[in-house]
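Reviewer comment 2.1 asked that we show a complete input and output for one of the modelled complexes. We chose the fe (ii) ion case, as it is the one discussed in the main text.
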Amino acid sequence: MIDIHCHLLPGVDDGPSTMDEALALAQFSVDRGITHSVVTPHIHPGRWDNEALTIRASMDVFKGALADKNIPLTIGMSGEMRVGLEALQMVASHKVPFLGKWGENYVILLEMPHSHIPTGMQQMIQWLLQRNIRPLIAHPERNKDVLRRIDKIQPLVDLGCLFQVTAGSISGRFGSTARDRAIQLLEMGVVTVLATDAHNLKRRPPSLDEGRDAAAVIVGAEVANKLVVENPWKIVSCQFE
Ligand SMILES: [Fe+2]
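Response of the prediction step:
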């Protein structure tokens, strides 16, 4: 399986704080059947000041540590860009690393605030699309507007966004309402990929298999597998060529 949203790099955001914790997350990923993890540190100016150059440097150190420990996890990189004016500036100055491609479009992983779908979200998506960048919306099932009303997601669907649902949401780790929304999105057929959004072993582990198996009950094993293998690979394979 290919995990394209996870926080495995040590000391760069609210993921693992030490290299030992980071390596434990990587080993856990391997044990649960993940072959490739694309690390996606938060890019949230003023809070998490990550950008392409700094993420790459951290990734290179992490890759070296994985090799030293013989942990067979292939690592790629991107970032989880927080919606906002700074995001536009950072994209324009090429500081946001793309996740990969979807057809002819470049893809970035975009995070909305949990509290709501921000005003200007549709304009920001249009701005990105005009630049041949298609947003992959991180965990829409955990956004409070979507939790209140599933149809709040429809304008983003209509604009052509891709959607990443978090594996743990389907298996109920974020409560019953988030699980219901995750299941509804699966049933609507708008989910592009499942990913772990792993941060730590205790509460948010990289259990992609758990999400795949829970999704299989809803959409069948073949579609569930596509969401953790083919579709994520379609996006990120260009990182590994
Ligand atoms: Fe995340």
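The domain at 2-240 is CATH 3.20.20.140 (TIM Barrel). We note this here for comparison with the apo prediction described in Section 3.2.
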